[in-house]
């Protein structure tokens, strides 16, 4: 049934955390992604008991099946600056705590960036800092999801091998998963919009990282061409990724229980703009 698929978008929490759930429900979404704090500031407003109570109550009332949080863009566990590393560790521990309070199972994290270190050394640094974060936060329900990246600038995570290296160095791997972003992997050079390339992509991913580590898929078209390493999201079927890619994902049994989240332009402030994208993705599902 189309109404049971796990699909939604990143939406604003303006007016209260629970408002994102109302916005999701209004456009027919069954899951939603949010920031639990400003994504451009280190400081965070405290989550109150009333915030938690209302958020969980509305979640049950509207039958929102999965909620994902996205970590602040300021967090950089690969930074060459020690003070930024320390701030990032503290901020990520706090974000995990916020997710735990709101009973959010997944926290999507950009691995980090470092223009001074070799990629391999940067991956080691990220893993070391993640181990510190996991030890300090001791999460009970929230899993950190490393996001696949486009490779813009000095960002880490454009190659599956980089993410595999980070995961391989994590002491308690049950706390780490993967969020695949379709725009990012396309921009990173992974083609998956033909039948052959689609099957080859996931075979490659499974051999390097493991399909079972994927917990969320960001469903974004790309404004730029294959292998451009430019992170520019576009509305579904309006960009450079052939629609077949999204049709294959929507009908792939191995992703049936994976939350699929839109991060298309301007959607977080105006969820009605994502109504068409959601309807398009739903229309791809074979009966």
Characterization of the model:
The protein is an alpha/beta fold and 287 residues long. The chain has one domain: TIM Barrel, CATH 3.20.20. Helices cover 39% and strands 14% of the residues. It contains nine helices and ten strands. Helix 4 links the parallel strand 4 and strand 5. Helix 1 (17-26) runs parallel beside helix 2 and helix 4 crosses helix 5 (160-168). The longest helix has 20 residues, at 82-101. The protein is globular, with a radius of gyration of 18 Å. The termini are close together. 46% of the residues are buried. The model has no long low-confidence stretch (mean pLDDT 95).
Secondary-structure element sequence? EHEHEHEHEHEHHEEEHEH
CATH fold name, please?
TIM Barrel
Q: How many independent structural domains? A: 1
CATH hierarchy, class: Alpha Beta
Radius of gyration: 18 Å
Structure annotation, total helices: 9
**Average pLDDT over all residues:** 95
Structural class: alpha/beta
Features:
287 residues, alpha/beta, TIM Barrel, eight-stranded parallel beta barrel, two-stranded antiparallel ribbon, 10 strands, globular
What does this entry show, briefly?
With 287 residues, the chain is an alpha/beta fold.
């Amino acid at each position: 049934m189309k109404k049971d698929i796990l699909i939604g978008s990143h939406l604003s929490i303006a007016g209260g955390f629970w408002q994102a759930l109302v916005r999701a429900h209004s456009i027919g979404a069954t899951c939603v992604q949010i920031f639990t704090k400003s994504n451009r500031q280190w400081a965070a407003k405290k989550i109150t008991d009333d915030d938690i109570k209302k958020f969980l109550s509305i979640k049950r009332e509207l039958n929102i099946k999965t909620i994902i949080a996205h970590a602040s863009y300021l967090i950089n566990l690969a930074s060459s600056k020690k003070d930024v590393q320390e701030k990032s560790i503290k901020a990520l521990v706090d974000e995990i705590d916020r997710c735990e309070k709101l009973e959010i199972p997944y926290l999507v994290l950009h691995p980090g960036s470092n223009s001074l270190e070799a990629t391999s050394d940067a991956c080691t640094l990220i893993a070391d800092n993640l181990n510190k974060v996991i030890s300090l936060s001791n999460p009970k329900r929230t899993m950190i999801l490393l996001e696949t990246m486009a490779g813009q600038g000095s960002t880490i995570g454009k190659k599956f091998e980089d993410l595999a290296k980070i995961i391989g160095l994590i002491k308690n791997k049950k706390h780490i998963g993967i969020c695949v972003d379709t725009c990012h992997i396309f921009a990173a050079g992974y083609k998956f919009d033909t039948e052959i390339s689609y099957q080859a992509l996931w075979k490659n991913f499974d051999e390097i990282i493991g399909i079972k580590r994927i917990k969320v898929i960001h469903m974004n078209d790309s404004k730029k061409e294959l292998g451009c390493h430019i992170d520019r999201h576009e509305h579904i079927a309006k960009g450079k990724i052939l629609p077949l890619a999204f049709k294959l994902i929507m009908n792939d049994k191995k992703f049936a229980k994976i939350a699929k989240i839109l991060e298309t332009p301007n959607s977080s402030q105006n969820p009605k703009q994502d109504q068409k994208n959601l309807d398009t993705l739903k229309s791809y599902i074979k009966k």
